[in-house]
Structures are given as C-alpha cells and as structure tokens.
C-alpha cells in the first residue's frame, strides 16, 4: 500500500464548491458594506431640508469610501433630519443676529 502525502490529503479534502472560512467572512463583510451603502443612500434622499449639493457630497462620500463613507453619511443625514424635525434648525435660522 502506498502512503498518502499531506498534499494529496489536502487536495482530496478541499472541495471548490464549499467556501472556506475566510471566503465566508469576506462575503459577509461585502454584503454588510452593500447593505450599509443602500441604507446611506435611502437616508440621504429621505432627509428633508438637506441641500441638493450636500446630498451629492454625502452620496459621493458613501460611494468612495468602502465602509466609513456610508457610515458617515448615515450619521450625518440622521442627525440633520433630527435637527430639522425638532425645529432646532428653523429656530436658529429665524433667531435675531447679534449686533
């Protein structure tokens, strides 16, 4: 009987259809980043009172930086929406200016 080498055992045990652990983690990270990008775009375009130029800037930020861009865009859009809904931005725009 022949003795099987470690390379032969590794070749027999590896199947190309079953993803390895690192492939599953990379796929999960990619799906998480894609979901975060979609969430960021929805938050940007649903934000009331945000100027179209700022929507474009936040959209480009979300597309150019893989993980931190969408995260930053979501945080900025949600904080802007909260400030608009609470009336904080309307009050500061109407406040008298100091002379």
TrEMBL record:
<keyword id="KW-0812">Transmembrane</keyword>
<keyword id="KW-1133">Transmembrane helix</keyword>
<keyword id="KW-0472">Membrane</keyword>
<feature type="transmembrane region" description="Helical">
    <location>
        <begin position="56"/>
        <end position="77"/>
    </location>
</feature>
<protein>
    <recommendedName>
        <fullName>Phospholipase_D-nuclease N-terminal</fullName>
    </recommendedName>
</protein>
